[in-house]
Amino acid sequence: MIRRSFIAALAFAAALPLTAWAEAPLKVVATTGMIADAARQVGGDQVEVKGLMGPGVDPHAYRQTRTDIVAMTRADLILWHGLYLEAQMEDFFHDLGRKRNVVAVAEGVDPAKLRAHDDYADKYDPHVWMSPVLWRDVVVEVQKALTEARPEAAEVFAANTQTFLAEMDQLEAYGARALAAVPEDNRVLVTAHDAFGYFGAEYGYEVLGIQGISTQSEAGLNRIGELVDTLVNKQLTAVFVESSVSDRSMRALIEGAAAKSHDVGVGGELYSDAMGEPGTYEGTYIGMLDHNITVIAGALGADVPGRGMNGKLSAGF
């Protein structure tokens, strides 16, 4: 009787999904969508990731909520960007790091590769996700953090990382091809704030932002006047709004150019400090950059695939 019961128990166990016997996923909290996506790509089914900042959220101004604090205190690992991106939360993370497993993943990038911050002498431009080459370094830091939190899954994390890095190589190659097809005189990117410096450096574009590296810096009338003159003198006809920044200053720029009898239009909306909607292609890092590359190249004169490098963009250019 006991033997039959034991055999029945084994049969029942064998019928259960494998996940029922697997170790519970690591609870990971990430500040930005870009870091959350990297954690999901590297962690796979070993992680359960919660991102704090959704579409359209400005990380420069974001402050933690009570719900965020509860999630972080219950997490096995907290991943934040660092480099003064989450400026309003920096003290909070330094304090939390004395009690919890907290990692600033972008601070693992070699400082020699970083741009100086235009407002703070001792800080750097944090927008490293705009360069697939630099973001590779951050992905590796995410892998290190996950491996330290769950060493027994190291091989899984390593394999997932290599797969993701290969996808990023394809993205970088597509960007190089598409953006090189823009006429040289048109390779000027005018945006709401200076989030595209690494993008410009990687692909050979001049980048002009109305605001500085942080959206908290003020866009003065003098700056708008300077950019209006640049648009007119260089005969530029396209500027770009950002999903996480108000377009008010950009409208002022377009109106200023119109006052000088020069027509300028919006080339498209770019994802700067936040990705697209969850569950969409643009809600992934690859999709975010594919969108930006395709929109910029197309608006500035290149012949680009209507739905990006692999046909997944939700809206054709």
Automatic annotation (TrEMBL):
Q: Main localisation, per the record?
A: other
What the entry lists under Pfam families is as follows:
ZnuA (PF01297)
> Signal sequence span per UniProt?
1-22
Keywords, in A-Z order: Metal-binding, Signal, Transport
Q: Where does this polypeptide localize?
A: Cell envelope
In terms of superkingdom, the source organism counts as Bacteria
Which BP terms from GO are recorded? cell adhesion; metal ion transport
Question: Does Signal appear among the keywords?
Answer: yes
Gene3D superfamilies linked to this entry: Nitrogenase molybdenum iron protein domain (3.40.50.1980)
Q: Which SUPFAM superfamilies does the record associate with it? A: Helical backbone' metal receptor
In the record, what terms sit under GO molecular function? Answer: metal ion binding
**A GO-annotated cellular component:** cell envelope
Q: Which family does it belong to?
A: Belongs to the bacterial solute-binding protein 9 family.
The identity of this protein, by name, is Periplasmic zinc-binding protein TroA
